[in-house]
Automatic annotation (TrEMBL):
Pfam families: TrcR. This is DUF1013 domain-containing protein. Residues 78-102, 205-259 are annotated as: Disordered. Residues 240-251 have a biased composition (Polar residues). It comes from the Bacteria. InterPro entries: TrcR. Residues 80-89, 224-233 have a biased composition (Basic and acidic residues).
Length: 259
């Protein structure tokens, strides 16, 4: 400990109860000399109650007397009677904090990650965009309350994560897939090819799909039907029934409710 716990309150007490110079008080409290002068003039720290450093065990009476006798003397803070261990530095745990102005963008970012990087786990997606597993699962199975209005958007573009963080998560997922393939005695190609984030962005810009589940196909069908409705064209009956038939049996009831 090199400074008192309440520097301004301590400075207020020293100004009011001692004859120490402004420089001495500023040096001890970690303040600027002009700030201490402002405290003495009543322009700074108005309304702050003084904190007695002697009672708090941060300064002794003898130390104050030495400082008052010698204007050039630097006050030394008292050593604490009990040494407290420094807190261990640990990595950030839990989901990333997302500002309120960007929280409405998280569903679109989740849909983009689920669509173009299905190899990412729910935990990885939660750390990237700062969300919870139930929210991710609701978008995976299309049970989210606002699913009809969710548009997949790159989380890097939205500012929810950096490109380096996304690439690191994809590489980690690729290494996990390689371990799973090795354990199962299969090649990585047999278990699905993982595309890096840069390739996924290029494929998305070119209109290509790199989907490995029904989620991406359903999203493509929804986008195409939305474009047809905006253009005034009626949806093709065959395409509608083909999109329904292309999904798994477990998702038929959800798709029927949607349509």
């Amino acid at each position: 400990m090199t400074a008192p716990l309440m520097p301004k309150a301590t400075a207020v007490w020293l100004v009011d109860n001692t004859s120490l110079t402004f420089d001495q008080i500023a040096e001890f409290c970690g303040l600027h000399a002009l700030e201490v002068k402002g405290i003495a003039d009543g322009d700074v720290a108005m309304g702050i109650k003084g904190q007695d450093p002697v009672t708090a065990g941060q300064l002794s009476r003898d130390e104050i007397k030495r400082g008052e006798a010698d204007a050039g003397y630097k006050l030394q803070i008292s050593k604490p009677k009990h040494e407290l261990p420094e807190p261990k530095k640990t990595g950030r745990k839990g989901p990333r904090y997302t500002p309120l102005s960007r929280r409405q963008d998280r569903p679109g970012a989740i849909a983009w990650l689920v669509r173009y990087h299905p190899e990412l786990t729910d935990g990885q997606i939660g750390k990237l965009v700062g969300t919870t597993k139930p929210t991710i699962q609701s978008i995976r199975d299309r049970s989210h309350w606002n699913m009809a209005n969710i548009t997949p958007v790159d989380p890097v573009t939205l500012g929810l994560c950096t490109q380096l963080e996304l690439d690191a998560a994809v590489q980690k997922a690729a290494r996990r897939r390689e371990r799973e393939a090795k354990k199962a005695g299969k090649s990585v190609e047999d278990m699905g090819t993982l595309a890096p984030a840069t390739q996924a962005l290029a494929d998305a810009a070119a209109g290509k799909t790199t989907l490995s589940d029904d989620f991406g196909q359903v999203m493509d069908d929804d986008d195409r039907q939305d474009r047809d409705r905006r253009d005034g064209a009626s949806p093709d009956v065959d395409s509608v029934f083909s999109s329904l038939g292309g999904s798994s049996v477990a998702n038929n009831e959800d798709e029927d409710d949607k349509y």
